[in-house]
Amino acid sequence: MSANEWWRCDATELARRVRQGEVTADELAAAARARIAALNPTLNAVVSLAADDPPTLDGPFGGVPFLAKDVLAVPGMPATMGSRLFAGNVPGAHVPYTSRLAESGLRCLGKTATSELGLLGSTETALAGVTRNPWGAEWSAAGSSGGSAAAVAAGLVPIAHANDGGGSIRLPAALAGLFGFKPSAGASAPASAVDNDFLRLVSEGCVSRSVRDTDAYLAATAAEPRSSVGPGRLGPLRIGVYTSSALGEEASPEGRAAVEEAAALCASLGHRVEWVEAPRIRGETAANAFFVVAGSSVRGLMELMTPMLGRPPGPAELEPFTLALVAWAWELGPEALGEARRALDVQGADLRAFLDGVDVALCPTWGGPRPALGLLAPHLPLDVLMARTRSLAGFTAGHNPAGAPSMSVPMGWTPDGLPVGCQLAAAPGRDTMLMRLAYQLEEAAPWAHRWPPDQFGENTNG
After folding, report:
1. What would the DSSP string read from start to end of 66-87?
2. Residue 454 burial by CB count (10 A; 0-12/13-18/19+): exposed, middle or buried?
3. 305 and 236, same structural domain?
4. Is residue 144 among the annotated active site residues?
5. How high is the pLDDT of residue 456?
6. How far apart are CA 171 and CA 182, in angstroms?
7. CA–CA separation, 177 and 175 (whole Å)
8. 238/291 same-domain check
9. pLDDT for the residue 182
10. Does the annotation count 208 as an active-site position?
11. According to DSSP H, which parts of 177-282 are helical?
12. Domain that holds residue 347
């Protein structure tokens, strides 16, 4: 296999080729670094590169090139969380999650861009600049895992770490034509030594080009060691379909068309597909609660960093949106955080009740029009960014307080070839069933042959 071919393979196939001696881990790493050097100046998906440490050849992904989102504390590598506040932060010890990654054999070559502290749904930061979507330089790669999605979509690596507090795996996957699976709450090994309300909403995972890669990755990083799910027999599922978001906003025409196409495919596979009323979630109340929790959690980080700086962090360390969000949450008063927690609990219970009434829920992955760069730039006014974030994440955010598994599958494509993700979700703990449905959909309507246009590298759509 030549250096010009490796990036067409998924991680599972590359690991097999390393085991069979068809290619070495060092050859793969060198080819990946060369591709990063060629394409990253345009994409700006990778924000730091690691030292050339010896590979681990054990585990399901022995010797496979990999990138970690820059919120993950990988020992010996910068962990800035997309913020100037943490520039120069280099963790020295593993957390359980990074230990599992090391044991899986993935070779971490560097870190990918994220929005500041994972707050915004587009990866545009004062620290690292703008991350571009390989499907079009004018489009956002979403956030906060936009760097990981852009890197995998462009073939810099076959798989990359991502995490999700309100859609940050699923939204970037949808906009980059990738598979993104948010597991049930608590399914993954702990990924942080810090605990706060915001982090309790976050699930760890990855973005990849194949279901089997994500399946094996989630097994390798699970809280309790387990095997991959693998394809399996599925009885007819009751699939409830809707296209109205938690805010009551109807999907864009391309989002509705993708869902209709996905619903027809599910019906052809023998599932019982029914259009249902969208889940009754108090959308704006729940969204504001998310912002209160986020602002309060960031305030805690600011207080932690104040003694180190000798002053409270300010505009030299944090973006305008972050500072405005913290101030807004603080001005709501001491009761606001408790009220926000209760609102998220209600939202989670409402969505769980809805999911208990179907086997799978099918809807668009994102709300509103396809996001262009600048739509969620962190220098915009707070009220504008909050409103646009509520709209973009109107289909995804509720699954986090519900603790429910959900996935974005690249099942829709616009007439001009842009990816449109469809979200499928299930009740908490039904991850295995949902993953098996993903395998079934991938077999019925493959997407791995679809690549971005050649302004970011070789055109592979021929």
Report:
1. EEEETTS--TTS---TT-GGGT
2. exposed
3. no
4. yes
5. 58
6. 11
7. 6
8. no
9. 98
10. no
11. 211-220, 253-268
12. 6-282+341-456
> Residue 420: what residue type?
V
| 335 & 186 share domain | no
Q: Are strands 406-413 and 419-425 parallel, antiparallel or unpaired?
A: antiparallel
Cα-to-chain-centroid distance, residue 212: 17
Of 83, 104, 122, 144, the catalytic one is 144
Burial of 277 (0-12, 13-18, 19+ CB in 10 A): exposed
CATH code for the domain in which residue 19 is found: 3.90.1300.10
Q: Which two tokens stand for residue 233?
A: 């027999």
Kindly report, residue by residue over 164-211, the tens digit of the pLDDT: 999 999 999 999 999 999 999 999 999 998 889 999 999 999 999 999
Please spell the DSSP secondary structure of 274-337, one letter per residue: EE-PPP---HHHHHHHHHHHHHHHHHHHHHHHHHHHTS---TTTS-HHHHHHHHHHHHT-TTHH
Query: Where among 317, 340, 363 does a domain terminate?
Result: 340
Residue numbers of the chain with a pLDDT score lower than 50: 457-462
- Residue 351: strand, helix, or coil: helix
Active site residue 69: yes
Of the three residues 340, 360, 389, the one that is the final residue of a domain is: 340
pLDDT, position 296: 97
Cα gap 40→49, rounded to integer Å? 12
Place of tokens 């999605």: 149
CA 195 vs CA 75, 87, 201, 298, 431: distances in Å: 19, 21, 11, 12, 25
Q: H-type helices in 196-252, by residue range?
A: 211-220
Distance (Å, whole) CA 1 – CA 59: 22
Rounded-to-integer distance, Cα 84 and Cα 174, Å: 28
Residue 7 phi, psi dihedral angles, 5° rounding = -75, -10
For 79-105, the pLDDT digits (tens) are 999 999 999 999 999 999 999 999 999
Residue found by looking up tokens 């070559």 in the block: 109
Of residues 28, 25, 117, the one with CA closest to residue 69:
117
Active site residue: 69, 111, 140, 245, which one?
69
pLDDT for the residue numbered 459: 45
Beta strand pairing call for 360-364 and 238-241: parallel
Q: Which of 115, 140, 148, 168 is catalytic?
A: 168
| SS3 label, residue 257 | helix
What Å distances lie between residue 145 and 71, 120, 133, CA to CA? 9, 10, 12
